[in-house]
Structures
1.
Amino acid sequence: MNGLTVFALTGIGLLVIGVWALVLRAHLIRKVLALNVMGSGAFLLLVGAGAGAAPDPVPQAMVITGIVVTVSATALALALVLRIDAATGKPTLPEDRDRDLMDEDWQ
């Protein structure tokens, strides 16, 4: 198993874990973390695609730009979660409170 396969399998695994947590968790901070895990998986896939005999700088530049965008989007999402928590008293959306599949023991 070469390095490209390890990057691809790890990236796909992180994407699957992120989608799983995004769908099953109602807590908004956990959803933000799931989006960050999915982003990390996508970055690993891009780095793996850019590696090879002659490294391609375009995927590397895309990953660096994506990291900057991810940090900014995470800060915005966490600020919105704080506003929702201050307004409603719970860090969940009203439609997610009824279909909460995994967070009963955490609240």
Note: The chain has a mean pLDDT of 85.
2.
Amino acid sequence: MFQNEEKVNVYLEETCDAEGALLKSINRETYLRETMPHMMSGHYQGRALAMFSKMVAPKKILEIGTFTGYATLCLAEGLQTDGVLHTIDINEEQYERVSGYFERSAYAGNIRYHIGDAFEIIPTLTGDFDLVFIDADKKRNLVYYDMLIDRVPSGGIILIDNVLWKGKVFDDKHDSQTKQVIELNKTLANDSRVEKLILPIRDGLFVLRKK
């Protein structure tokens, strides 16, 4: 689409709101300490997530896939004062460090950080979710969506990351994981319960609004 994607990304970051000090610190430490730092939402997508959250003004958010907590804190920016954000991740080794980030934030009292299998944890969480962000095991994206679609009220938003899958969805031949992403996209495109579009942000962000 663009001849120099790196220049485009720099320009997008320069023309959106800046990262706060804590987010900038998480960004830097993620790139210093993680073997796959690209899994983090990062500056521009983080501002997009924060914008969606502020437009929805959710009482309750669910995030599947915490990683180092960058997206979590961006989503928390739109929470109502007494709102709650549940975030789930399978990696217990990051718990202490990521919990520390949350404690340093303005949303320490609003975030509930769960370690374990999201498939098992989601049924233990009560109530509906005004905003859902799915950014975890790609093989289970459709499973999570099916688990949650009836728990999102009319006007609620579901966001699913990595739906362009590094451009592999456009290839003639597909590996098994790419086939799963394509099947997810086809299923969501035909789901009459939601309004939907894919934004070409980073690796593709599916935005679905419950009718």
Note: The two ends are 32 Å apart (CA to CA).
3.
Amino acid sequence: MIRTWRGLPGRMLRTIVATRGAVVAPLGAGWESDLTAIRETRRRVPMLLSDAAALQILIAVRAARRRGGAMAEAGVFRGGSARLICHAKGDAPLHLFDVFETLQAGATQDPSAGETLVREHFGAVHGARARVEALLAPYPGVHVHAGVFPDTAAAVASERFGFVHLDLDLPGATRAALAFFHPRLLPGAILIGDDYEDRQVREVFGAFFADRPDAVIELPWGQVMVVSQG
């Protein structure tokens, strides 16, 4: 948990949390707005991100906003991280990709391999498109693309992106997302991937960027951040 602090915590507290794999981070008052946004988002919708990961998204979006271009998130669930992106993105268009409830009742009789993998992995755990759209209604420029990624990405094939957030869980979907978004990243754009503690997802990133010059930065709370070299 991250919180603002008016003084450094005592040595005993720092020692206890360090042995438990946690970090106490004293933040100045200037970060209170971001922490408030994280807390308010948690009150509105379940969010699987830790406070540190949520704060990292806000920081990266704010930095990437200067690059211009659109923003994207693949793997929306119930819209918590999308709301954080909206909090910091300004007027940049945001494209959201998720299956939502499309693979539940009324699913296709002859599903593709991608549909089958997603259905087997997530089961009945999904976000509802209408609820996500209602959550993000106050923010401008939000576009929702429902269905299996990357089939749903054709509509943005001509876009260039300054920020991308990937939270797809599955290695195959992550590989497809990197293949789609990477050539469309602006120089200096930021891509954040979740589930980096998962061995297969980590291997996908490692293989994809093995021969590319982009900066790949492992973050200690289960994310990876890629800074595009264009």
Note: Residues 104-123 have pLDDT under 50 and may be disordered.
